[in-house]
Specification:
7-stranded mixed sheet; single chain; 11 helices; 42% helix; alpha/beta; Rossmann fold; 272 residues
């Protein structure tokens, strides 16, 4: 069952359209599939729990949470990703509720869920504090908030830094997504609404690419933010060539024996 289609402001409409570009599910399943399952393990999701996956995409955390026996609701801005997740869950015999929702305005009452998850999802919402407010609001007292986010220093954080000169400027007041990959920032966002918070830096071992150019071409084809950056400079061949070289070089620097270490931060907090 899905909610009524959202009415979004221009910023959110643009954001949703960006994540519908390409095929993010290919990135989630072929490149970073381990992150969602690792987050579910860290959150200790299990039978009888009510779990909300925010900015769930096509379900990289929702599906393993459902396999753990939890009752799962998966929300995202992008209906195309939700439909992919819905089809995959049906094929696997998993009962998950999929719903369009804005992470800044979750359509659920206070203290509705035992566990609230987001696997490299809410970090891409442009305004961080309203999202953190919603994550804590819908979590039960004593419940768990569990997040996995790319770090600024890690590969994806460096990729976004490399793309920044070529991408359209963010909306006024927006914060960089990889800030969610720093313990201090997440701690400040959640504040005294949590009674404990642990943060662990972990590595997603990516073995999908043999060269930096192969990584670049995959992301140019499938990853919404990269596609959007290239569209922004499409009329300037010099800048396109510069970004091509920049992303290929970044990939080559991180490649070691066919493996690329992509660092992310796992945060597990208990609501006070």
């Amino acid at each position: 069952m899905t909610t009524t289609p959202l009415v979004l402001d221009p910023i959110k409409t643009k954001h949703r359209a960006m994540w519908a570009l390409g095929n993010y599910d290919a990135v989630a399943t072929e490149v970073v599939a381990d992150v969602g399952a690792r987050l579910v393990d860290a959150a200790r999701s299990g039978p009888g729990q009510h779990v909300l996956d925010v900015a769930a995409g096509s379900g990289s955390a929702s599906l393993p949470a459902a396999r753990s026996g939890a009752h799962v609701v998966a929300t995202d801005l992008t209906p195309e990703l939700l439909e992919t997740g819905r089809q995959r869950a049906t094929a696997q015999g998993l009962d998950i509720e999929w719903a369009e929702a804005d992470a800044e305005h979750l359509p659920y009452p206070d203290e509705s869920f035992d566990t609230v998850l987001s696997a490299i999802g809410v970090m891409f919402a442009p305004f961080h504090q309203p999202v953190a407010d919603e994550l804590t609001r819908v979590t039960k007292r004593g419940g768990t908030i569990a997040l996995a986010n790319w770090t600024p220093e890690g590969f994806i954080g460096q990729m976004f830094a490399a793309m920044k000169p070529y991408a359209a400027p963010p909306p006024p007041g927006a914060s960089p997504g990889p800030l969610w990959g720093t313990e201090a920032h997440v701690g400040e966002l959640l504040g005294d609404r949590v009674s404990s918070l642990t943060a662990t830096r972990e590595i997603c071992d990516v073995d999908r690419f043999a060269t930096g150019a192969e990584f670049r071409d995959f992301f140019k084809t499938y990853y919404g933010p990269t596609i959007a950056a290239y569209r922004n400079i499409a009329d300037d061949p010099t800048k396109v060539a510069e970004l091509d070289e920049t992303l290929a070089d970044l990939g080559d620097r991180y490649l070691d024996g066919g493996h690329m270490p992509w660092e992310y931060l796992v945060v597990v907090a208990t609501k006070a």
